[in-house]
From TrEMBL:
Keywords: Coiled coil, Hydrolase. It holds the Pfam family MazG. The keyword Lyase does not apply. This is Nucleoside triphosphate pyrophosphohydrolase. It comes from Yanshouia hominis. Residues 165-192 form a coiled coil. The keyword tRNA processing does not apply. One of its GO terms (molecular function) is nucleoside triphosphate diphosphatase activity. Residues 33-106, 170-230 form the NTP pyrophosphohydrolase MazG-like domain. It is an enzyme of class 3 (hydrolase).
């Protein structure tokens, strides 16, 4: 396959470039890859797209979307070589799915608002995937999702059956009971029981987030960033006073932390 440089490239050019890289005499590294070896690349690129969105940086988003698109083309090329499907079939499949799941656009179904759109979407999706019970919908939540995200999706789907707390305060009461059970497990000293109860505490905390409503994954990410920001401030304050953190008592560290927290909110 002969490559020709252009002023501007398109998606079809990307597909051709990938075929060239994977082809005879192409790039040794690209030719060695399979679905499993580049699996993590797809995940990492998706998160970098999210980071660009959060940063509000259009140029960064454009670049990261390109990296993510490359992964789609890469996996599709591998599958085409294995005789499974091509990138055209991937595009055909998603087009058909969108048409089928938007009967209010491509058919004569009438909806009154976005809520009804989502209800129809879920109903059509269940039919497509052969999901006949509520448990089927829970099992279909991918196990590879981040645990907080997966937990919130599982809880949301279970709640559609009516198996749910009425409000955030009720969910919080459940969280408090799970914390009490964790305390009991810590007192007993059994590692397996402690880990089990810790999981229940986190799962219950996600339930509280869902009822606020808040996204548990985003809330924890924000708290992580807040902790880093305050720790950085605490370290800077200590450095200004000639204090080495590693040489301080826990009480002294807590005092420095409280000062950093106060400065953070001022």
């Amino acid at each position: 396959m002969e490559f020709q440089a252009k002023e501007k490239y398109s998606v079809s050019d990307l597909i051709s470039i990938m075929a060239l890289l994977r082809g005879e005499g192409g790039c040794p590294w690209d030719r060695e890859q399979d679905h499993l070896t580049i699996r993590k690349n797809l995940i990492e690129e998706a998160y970098e797209v999210v980071e660009a969105i959060d940063a509000g940086d259009p140029e960064m988003l454009r670049e990261e979307l390109g990296d993510l698109l490359l992964q789609v083309v890469f996996h599709s090329r591998i599958s085409e070589e294995e005789g499974d499907f091509s990138i055209e079939e991937v595009a055909d499949g998603i087009c058909r799915k969108l048409i089928h799941r938007h009967p209010h656009i491509f058919s004569d179904v009438v909806v009154k608002d976005s809520g009804e759109v989502l209800e129809n979407w879920d109903a059509i999706k269940k039919q497509e995937k052969g999901q006949k019970t509520a448990s089927d919908t829970l099992h279909s939540v991918p196990k590879v999702l981040p645990a907080l995200m997966r937990s919130q999706k599982v809880q949301k789907r279970a709640a559609k059956t009516g198996f749910d707390y009425p409000d955030a305060l009720s969910a919080l009461a459940d969280l408090e009971s799970e914390i009490a059970e964790l305390r009991e497990a810590l007192a007993s000293g059994g590692q397996e029981a402690q880990t089990d109860e810790l999981g229940d505490v986190i799962f219950s905390a996600v339930n509280v987030a869902r009822h606020l409503p808040a996204d548990a994954e985003e809330a924890l990410t924000a708290s992580c960033e807040k902790f880093i920001r305050r720790f950085d401030r605490m370290e800077s304050m200590a450095r200004e006073k000639g204090i080495v953190l590693e040489e301080q008592s826990l009480d002294r560290l807590n005092a420095l932390w409280d000062a950093a927290k106060r400065a953070d909110v001022e």
